Amino acid sequence: MRVERSRRALRAALLGLLEEQSFDRTTIRDISARAGTGYATFFRHYSDKSALLNDLAAFEISELLKRALPILYAVDTRAACVALCRYVDEQRNLWSALLTGGAAGTLREEFVRQARVVAAEAKPGHRPDSWLPADLAVVFGASAVADILAWWLQQAPGYTVDEIADILDRLVIAPILQA
Fold first, then answer.
1. All CATH 1.10.10.60 domain ranges in the chain, comma separated
2. Pair 85, 168: CB distance under 8 Å
3. CATH number for region 48-178
4. How far apart are CA 158 and CA 152, in angstroms?
5. CA 98, CA 176: separation in Å to the nearest integer?
6. Which part of the chain is CATH 1.10.357?
7. The whole model's pTM is what?
8. Where does 1-46 sit in CATH, by number?
9. Among residues 24, 33, 173, which one has the least CA distance to residue 102?
10. How many CB atoms lie within 10 A of CB 7?
11. pLDDT of 69 over the 80 cut
12. What is the pLDDT of residues 78-135, one digit of tens each?
């Protein structure tokens, strides 16, 4: 129980710090101080700050997928895309660290892995009237969403939530649903 409390505190501390500054500028001392744990305690749980980020990422990816996958089954896919983009925009520093940092490839794989699990639980199987295998639609959709969000987070001055939602809906969601 104490171990899990410390891990939760460290994840919450990193999440809070990412709202204020970039991952690269965040130190283990910053994380430990924010979590209210000792510096040595950090290393009992994680080998480095990237390991903590990966732990946080697994949780945040599942939260993002809870918003992303229902888009495929929504009546108003445009509104669902807006909600997804708002969620990412509200936690821009976190998602910039996750999707554009050094671990972006690994995180993209985790995103696709979790998307497959969630999609299999939500809508298993292949529609016989579709030329697109369901599993490929999930892999393509999850990969495309992750890549478009990563691209968006790197843009300066940037695009609005509505503009990116429109791109996601028209470039990814509509074609998948038409298939």
1. 1-46
2. yes
3. 1.10.357
4. 7
5. 25
6. 48-178
7. 0.76
8. 1.10.10.60
9. 24
10. 18
11. no
12. 888 998 999 999 888 888 878 887 667 777 788 888 888 877 775 555 556 678 887 8
